[in-house]
Amino acid sequence: KQEVTQIPAALSVPEGENLVLNCSFTDSAIYNLQWFRQDPGKGLTSLLLIQSSQREQTSGRLNASLDKSSGRSTLYIAASQPGDSATYLCAVAGANSKLTFGKGITLSVRP
Amino acid sequence: ETGVTQTPRHLVMGMTNKKSLKCEQHLGHNAMYWYKQSAKKPLELMFVYNFKEQTENNSVPSRFSPECPNSSHLFLHLHTLQPEDSALYLCASSQGIGTDNSPLHFGNGTRLTVT
After folding, report:
1. Interface contact A91, partner B, CB < 8 A
2. Are A2 and A63 in contact (CB under 8 A)?
3. Is the per-residue pLDDT at A111 higher than 60?
């Protein structure tokens, strides 16, 4: 059974800092890995999707990497801003396309 | 503005009530999903529909009854719920399922409280 872990559960950083959010998964047989953002009281917004054949994806200040063999992904946020404060969730898609989610990392960027 | 709309945003119901959650997607997607998000737990997949046909029932109790009349609409009918069913219920859609690598688009959810 696939398990997705995101540690730490919460993170607080000063504005402007570059930061890395980590995600690990137990079963390397995945089709893709997705990073989502969730604001309080809202649904999830897809940030980046990395296919199993890819190593990374970039969108603006965000860069996500994938290392299937080690079961790890990182989300890199450059020059963090207070508007980046949210919960970031990692999810992996298995053979039946079923997504398994981590519990998320709650990020607070201090002005 | 999300392309997936969920109503109502908030719902309070007693354990003997019957209510329904509604989801509508305006993205032309073929697959729709119900997820449950409880405090301090990962999102849990409940049901998956592809081209109106249910393809996944993740051992969900029968007090939750999904309905998908067409690819754009998804309902979750609720009856005789328990307090532990209180959670945020999220609807999502995607272009397809399987290996097409299409991202999920989520609605803003219905916050359900069972008293």
Report:
1. yes
2. no
3. yes
Are B104 and A99 an interchain contact pair (Cβ–Cβ within 8 Å)? Answer: yes
Q: What is the pLDDT of residue A75?
A: 98
- The whole-number pLDDT of residue B1 equals 52
Contact A97 B99 (CB under 8 A): yes
Q: Is B5 on the interface with A (CB under 8 A)?
A: no
H helices present in chain B, as ranges: none
Question: Rounded to 5 degrees, what angle do the CA atoms B23, B88, A75 make?
Answer: 95
A18 CB contacts (<8 Å, ≥6 apart)?
A76, A77, A78, A79, A80
* Residue B27 contacts A, CB cutoff 8 Å: no
Residue B44 has pLDDT above 90, yes or no: yes
3-state class (DSSP) for residue A82: helix
Q: Residue B27 has which token pair?
A: 């993205």
pLDDT band at A97 (very low <50, low <70, confident <90, very high): low
The reply to whether residue A43 touches residue B109, judged by beta carbons under 8 angstroms, is: yes
- Which is it for strands B87-94 and B110-114: parallel, antiparallel or unpaired? antiparallel
Other beta carbons within 10 Å of A33: 26
User: Do B90 and A102 lie within an 8 Å CB cutoff?
Assistant: no
pLDDT value of residue B98: 64
pLDDT in tens, B49-60: 989 888 888 889
